[in-house]
Amino acid sequence: MLALTDRAVEVVKEIVASDGPAESSGLRMVADKIGPEPHIQITIAALPGEDDEVVETEGARVFLEPTAATLLEDKLLDATVEQNTVSFTIVDQPGL
User: Fold this and answer.
1) Which parts of 1-96 are beta strand (E)?
2) What domains appear along the chain, each with residue ranges and CATH number?
3) What is the DSSP letter of 93?
4) b/e map of 54-68 (b: 16 or more CB within 10 Å)?
5) DSSP 47
6) How many CA atoms lie within 13 A of 67 on its CB side?
């Protein structure tokens, strides 16, 4: 299952909160096949999709559509913020 770093947890909560308070909200990740490598699109969602896998870490919620869930099952989501711009990085989980 996708894991989140401490920084990613903070950033996800900040992004979701900026869209308005809702306990059911989260970031939704969808995998699109563009070229030889999949492309992950991230949006704010009020609720997970019907078939989404929900990853919740310390109150940060990430919704993974089925293809994204499969692609990211052994990955770690990290985040950096520079000059009010958020960048997410997806790497292999250590030890897996």
Assistant:
1) 3-4, 26-34, 37-45, 53-57, 60-64, 75-82, 85-92
2) 3-92 (2.60.300.12)
3) P
4) ebebeebbbbbbeeb
5) S
6) 9
